[in-house]
Amino acid sequence: MAKYLSKITVEEKIEIIEKFLNNKINYRQAAEEADVDKTTIRDWVALYENEGPLAFLPRKKYQRYTKKTKQAAVLDYLAGKGSLREIAQKYNLRSQTQLREWLKVYNTHGDFEVKEKLTMSGTRNTIQEERLKIVQDCLSQDKNYRQIATKYQVSYTQVYNWVKKYEKMGSAGLEDRRGQQKGSLPGRTPDEELRQELSREKQKSKELEMQVELLKKVKEHERRDRLD
């Protein structure tokens, strides 16, 4: 049985890949010699073809990819333009695992921003009624903070904080308490509790559907890879 991690040296790994590329051994023989599975051999071959022997040398830093590259790779895969291995090779990724991680991020967030940026450089004053309207609109849009911030010309941080306060204290959390003595604030009304619970359930259902659909696509491509 193949080991989880190969114990062979870089030189041995390169030698096995070159023997395979020179048609001296096949995938099965290469996998047995390296004590790994055939998928790993395919990854090594793709790396060698993209970067040559230097691909197997230790790197001091992890390679960084642009948001544009990540999104292009994910969209190509979801559009059925290639298997995990083929897309990874096309975008010069070091392994299929990298693409898998991007798929998870895209499925969850829809983009690859590590940190959200403010939609505007500053903030503006708002009244409680307007804040409540913004929060309710944001919840109805599955907490798309960036879109709502742009729509109402406020900052991303403002929308995010208002939603959090509303979820914790209801409309009372949106009151402007600056300059007032701190104290306990009234909680949400029964209608607000029900509305928030429905919003949470809607979000959970949407995320589950996306995860199931993505899993189906990944399994189908993996099945095709095994048949290659």
Can you describe what's shown?
By secondary structure, the chain is mostly helical. Among the domains are: 7-58; 61-113; 128-173. Helix content is 61%, strand content 0%. Helix 6 (96-109) runs antiparallel to helix 10 and helix 8 packs across helix 9 (156-169). It is elongated, with a radius of gyration of 25 Å. Mean pLDDT is 75; it is low at 1-5 and 114-122.
Mean pLDDT: 75
**Can you tell me the overall shape?**
elongated
**Element-level helix/strand string:** HHHHHHHHHH
Question: Main β-sheet, in a few words?
Answer: none
Low-confidence stretches: 1-5, 114-122
Instruction: Measure the end-to-end span.
Output: 21 Å
Estimated radius of gyration: 25 Å
Class from helix and strand fractions: mainly alpha
Portion in strands = under 5%
Count of helical stretches: 10
How many DSSP-defined strands? 0
Helix content: 55-70%
Short description:
The chain is mostly helical and 228 residues long. Among the domains are: 7-58; 61-113; 128-173. It is 61% helix and 0% strand.
In terms of topology, how is this protein built?
Blueprint: H1 10-21, H2 27-34, H3 38-51, H4 67-78, H5 84-90, H6 96-109, H7 128-140, H8 145-152, H9 156-169, H10 190-227
Helix pairs in contact: 1-2, 1-3, 2-3, 4-5, 4-6, 5-6, 6-10, 7-9, 8-9
Biased composition (Basic and acidic residues): 189-207
Region (Disordered): 173-207
Domain Insertion element IS150 protein InsJ-like helix-turn-helix: 12-61, 70-110, 130-180
Looking at this protein, list some descriptive labels.
single chain; 228 residues; mainly alpha; 0% strand
